[in-house]
Fold this protein.
Amino acid sequence: MMNEFELIQNYFKSLPTPRGDVVIGIGDDAACLRVPQGCSVLVSTDTLVSGVHFLPTWNAYDIAYRALMVNLSDLAAMAAEPCWFLLALTLPTVDEAWLESFALGMSDVIQSFGIALVGGDTTQGPLSITITMMGLAPVDKALKRSGAQPGDEIFVSGELGAAALAVETLNENNHPMAMEKLLHPKARVDLIPYLRQYATSAIDISDGLSADLNHLCVASNVGACLMQDQIPLHASLELALHGGDDYELCFTVPAEKKKQLTKDLKQKGLKCYPIGVIEEEKGLRIEDADGNRQTLIPKGYRHF
Amino acid sequence: MMNEFELIQNYFKSLPTPRGDVVIGIGDDAACLRVPQGCSVLVSTDTLVSGVHFLPTWNAYDIAYRALMVNLSDLAAMAAEPCWFLLALTLPTVDEAWLESFALGMSDVIQSFGIALVGGDTTQGPLSITITMMGLAPVDKALKRSGAQPGDEIFVSGELGAAALAVETLNENNHPMAMEKLLHPKARVDLIPYLRQYATSAIDISDGLSADLNHLCVASNVGACLMQDQIPLHASLELALHGGDDYELCFTVPAEKKKQLTKDLKQKGLKCYPIGVIEEEKGLRIEDADGNRQTLIPKGYRHF
């Protein structure tokens, strides 16, 4: 008695379920999740629309991968451990090869991050994917955008600009590393313990460093100055400052904790980059190697 | 620096927020929600696509109202108190009058049910609405589809078939009560205390009584026999059995508790209808007033 879209949901039931805290999973009216005492629930949702956030020609594997990473990145930016997700999938037609590839992309991310698909909805319509990701953080320990203080050091978690380079050169296809970053961004869930220990605020870089740092500064009621030659560039400064889609994290750390953080990260083979400092004066500034400062105008995200 | 779709999210920030357990709401990378000790989190997601689940000509108020009700109904069917929701809204263009009407529909439901909008995403694309609804139930007290036992009485929470009549006669527009039921279904959150006290299983009637009772029976590994003249009809038996979109609840209660349930409901001015009995024999049957039984084939949901 099921229609083919309901059958798909049954199909997704076969994905790995690496969690014991799913009391009721896919197949009932709602999922039921056990929350440990002392934890709050974090939740975020992001929609990827065909032709806006990805090209219809992309592999379904890559679309699924990216849809999950974008949402995982939101939780990482809150220093919340990702646990469970729901998938609302709208498909024009039922294409089994496409679905198999899509499920494989999900399965790989599920296994890498130990998250579980606990519910969803499959409907007919123009291709779009909405993921709702849920996670856990110790009560009142979720990391907001609004905690940055003047004097805090600004860090980014990796090179910036690769994904934007890939978007700019989509048709050339001769920047394989940049394309890999665009298709398979890696949500920085590995940094959660360090964020919890050291950071005063965080945001993920989806719209671009200038736009997202500006969001963080506005929320924190502060400003920032970036040191131009400290920003880890993939290609150009322009792309690093204003290009989106990298899904690295930008976070702030009290100046006196900078050394210890760097040491702790190094011990685990990790590296984050100090790129500037939070200031009382609102707005963004950038300083070159000669100490010349200029105003930095944040640029919005440009869809491709 | 915000684009117009980001501005919309700011716009939704002005909706009423009737809950004190939202630690972080709209505007950060994720929402943070406080979960009381002894409670599990329930979560469900449903997408409404323009032209599939509603007509593009509908008022935005009605679309918002319905999108929330469909999701509230899923939580009611689990006997879970609805608390928080996220809105993933995909819009072809930014139409302020449409958005105002949409926000008003949400605001009315928010205030009626004491739920809070805690996050979301607004993107450009073909009109569709994905709501993720979250709620609470005492640990291990969420009501599944799979708990029905042979001998249990089957109840429905109200008249069936009105929404299907409205769908069938959309162009005539001469069944105002049926149209009201289609546009403004009422999630049966009011029944949650009774479900928790008396029910062994429940499901909401979105696809139609026959289809949804069948889902419940399959999940519970049982069958059912309906008493034809006990089914509360809005129009015809056909529409009551096979028409979707009513969003009443179907639930099962041990036979010995039937009287007490009915009494308890009556005290609060409520009424549910006993319409049959769970049987060991798989499949659905229907019995007329003369005691003649025949097999009832569940029919799938037909989108309009």
Notes: Chain B has a mean pLDDT of 92. The radius of gyration of chain B is 20 Å. Chain B touches chain A through 72 residues (CB under 8 Å). DSSP finds nine helices and 13 strands in chain B.
